[in-house]
UniProtKB/TrEMBL annotation:
<feature type="region of interest" description="Disordered">
    <location>
        <begin position="94"/>
        <end position="116"/>
    </location>
</feature>
<keyword id="KW-0342">GTP-binding</keyword>
<dbReference type="InterPro" id="IPR050305">
    <property type="entry name" value="Small_GTPase_Rab"/>
</dbReference>
<keyword id="KW-0547">Nucleotide-binding</keyword>
<keyword id="KW-0636">Prenylation</keyword>
<keyword id="KW-0378">Hydrolase</keyword>
<dbReference type="GO" id="GO:0016020">
    <property type="term" value="C:membrane"/>
</dbReference>
<dbReference type="InterPro" id="IPR027417">
    <property type="entry name" value="P-loop_NTPase"/>
</dbReference>
<keyword id="KW-0449">Lipoprotein</keyword>
<protein>
    <recommendedName>
        <fullName>small monomeric GTPase</fullName>
        <ecNumber>3.6.5.2</ecNumber>
    </recommendedName>
</protein>
<comment type="similarity">
    <text>Belongs to the small GTPase superfamily. Rab family.</text>
</comment>
<dbReference type="Pfam" id="PF00071">
    <property type="entry name" value="Ras"/>
</dbReference>
<dbReference type="GO" id="GO:0003925">
    <property type="term" value="F:G protein activity"/>
</dbReference>
<dbReference type="GO" id="GO:0005525">
    <property type="term" value="F:GTP binding"/>
</dbReference>
<dbReference type="InterPro" id="IPR001806">
    <property type="entry name" value="Small_GTPase"/>
</dbReference>
Length: 122
């Protein structure tokens, strides 16, 4: 229901490959699958090869969300996953709404204080 496309901001080739993945998704994935573009390693600004504006433009061309993240520092990781989950729920909730007239629930909340990297639907 959702695909995350990740490139390395310090590697132009990884960014160029995103176009190939977009084409593959269009040809092989279910129609309407949610997609998200992530530029990883934003903690390595000094080694940046792909400008944020380039990725933002690509995301806008494909009508998808874009985040710059850092797996190392966890910057924007939770926000990106929550955004994708919310978009998937809104899309699937819209189908449910047509079927049974019940509004979808899209609230995300932390499961427990010890493990804040996981979330559950409210």
């Amino acid at each position: 229901m959702g695909i995350i496309l990740v490139y390395d901001i310090t590697d132009e080739k990884s960014f160029e490959n995103i176009q190939n993945w977009m084409k593959s998704i269009k040809e092989n994935a279910s129609a309407g699958v949610e997609r998200l573009l992530l530029g990883n390693k934003c903690d390595m600004e000094a080694k940046r090869k792909v400008q944020k504006e380039q990725a933002d433009k690509l995301a806008r061309e494909h009508g998808i969300r874009f985040f710059e993240t850092s797996a190392k520092s966890s910057m924007n990781v939770d926000e990106a996953f929550s955004s994708l989950a919310r978009d998937i729920l809104l899309k699937s909730g819209g189908r449910r709404l047509k079927n049974n007239n019940k509004p979808p629930s899209t609230d995300l909340k932390t499961c427990d204080k010890k493990n804040t990297n996981k979330c559950s639907l409210a």
